[in-house]
Structure formats: C-alpha cells, structure tokens
Specification:
This protein is mainly beta. It is 0% helix and 50% strand. The chain has no helices and 19 strands.
Length: 234
C-alpha cells in the first residue's frame, strides 16, 4: 500500500549519568590567501558538566592538559578556557580532557578552521552589446488547468513529552491527519475515511505495532531510545 504521509518522533529514557560538553566547540576564522588568520584572535569557551540534572561546580570538575595545535596557546581558569590563535595557525582540533568527581574522564574536542581568501582574478574585457530583438506578439491565453489535489500531511503530538527519566512514566502519541489544511477524523482503529489507515512502527521495523489514532508508550519499554514512525497508508 502507498504511504500518503508520515511523521516520526524519538522517545528517550535518561538516567542520572554524567554529561559533559563545551559552550562552544567549533570556530571558523577569516584567513588570507594562504589560509592563515588575518590577525591574532582570542576565543573563549567553557566546560559544562552535569550529574543527572545537577550542574557540577568547578570544585567537582577538573580540566587536564589541553593538546593544542600549531599557532594556538591555551589557558584555563576554573571551567573557562581561553584560546589565543596566532597568524601561524592553519586550523585543526584540540583535545580537552575533563574529569568529573575525580573519577570519570571525558575527552572533548575543539575545532578551529581558517577560511581561505581566494586570489583576485584578472578583470575581463567588456563584451560588445548585441542588437535588441523585436518584441513578439502576445500569445493567446491557455485553458485553465484542472484543480490540484489537496495536500495530505500527518503530524504526531505527545501529551507528556518525549523524555522519560529512570524508566518511569508514560506518554500518549496521537496522530493528526490534514487534507488541504483541514484536520480529518481518525477512528480508534486508525481509519481515515477515503484516505487510508494510520499505522505505527517502532525502531525502523516493517511490521506495524498498532493501527490506531494514538498509542501509549511506557517508559519501561524504552531502552535508552525508541523511534516511532506513524504512516497514513492506503
């Protein structure tokens, strides 16, 4: 059967684990024709670390020795990192070791790219102007085309979000089908009169887990992540 419209949603189940990131991890600087920075530039970024949803302080997080690249010097102050990019830098990736609670170490990456300025090309000769052609007669108006079919779209909504914590809770996913911007009625069995049937699939499977207007997802059935796809087939 043909798929007339579809939508997809990802459900996550998170635990009280560590997560560490940088406020900025990628920088692009303007360069000369040799791909070197036009001037010395100072860049800044900061480490953000969490234990579950708790924000960790500088007393609980330490930044190790940063592996740098040519033309870049670094300094640290608490959770803040300053990068000084000199005119000899050609870009690259720095490694930043971060240890939380004195036990778990993460390696973050900072990318620096230098955009190369292209050389100015030679000015071309001005071409001669061609003669202006005569204006043609206006053609007759063509017949009106047949009316197009109304577009069919599908959207998924959730009544309790898409993120669970510690395998607790549930959420109901509901399909909404629109034809020409007008929402259509979907039966409990997923039937949309004159259009087809709403079917639900999980994690890329080819066999539907349900034919319905809505499904309820229990956190206990989500192993870190689950992707639900809803399709209108008919």
């Amino acid at each position: 059967m043909a798929v007339k419209s579809a939508d997809q949603v990802t459900i996550l189940d998170i635990t009280d684990s560590y997560s560490v990131n940088l406020t900025a991890s990628s920088f692009t600087l303007s360069g000369d024709v040799n791909g070197r920075p036009l001037s010395s530039t100072t860049l800044q970024t900061s480490v953000q670390a969490y234990r579950g949803t708790q924000v960790l302080t500088a007393d609980e997080v330490s930044i190790g020795n940063i592996t740098t690249i040519t033309g870049v010097t670094t300094s640290k102050a608490g959770l803040n990192i300053t990068l000084t990019v000199g005119t000899t830098c050609t870009g690259g990736v720095l490694s930043v070791p971060v240890t939380v609670d004195g036990d778990v170490t993460f390696t973050l990456k900072i990318s620096i790219a230098i955009s190369k300025t292209g050389a100015t090309g030679a000015k071309g000769d001005t071409g001669s102007a061609g003669p202006q052609g005569e204006r043609g007669e206006t053609g007759p108006t063509g017949p009106a085309g047949a009316a197009g079919e109304d577009a069919i779209t599908l959207a998924i909504t959730s009544d309790n979000g898409t993120i669970f914590k510690n395998s607790s809770g549930n959420t109901t996913l509901t399909a909404h089908v629109y034809k020409g911007g007008v929402e259509q009625t979907i039966s409990s069995a997923g039937v949309v009169t004159g259009l087809g049937t709403v079917k639900w699939y999980k994690d890329g499977g080819t066999t539907p887990v349900a034919s319905a207007n809505s499904i309820t997802v229990q956190a206990s059935t989500v192993d870190s992540k689950a992707v639900y796809t809803c399709q209108l087939e008919g």
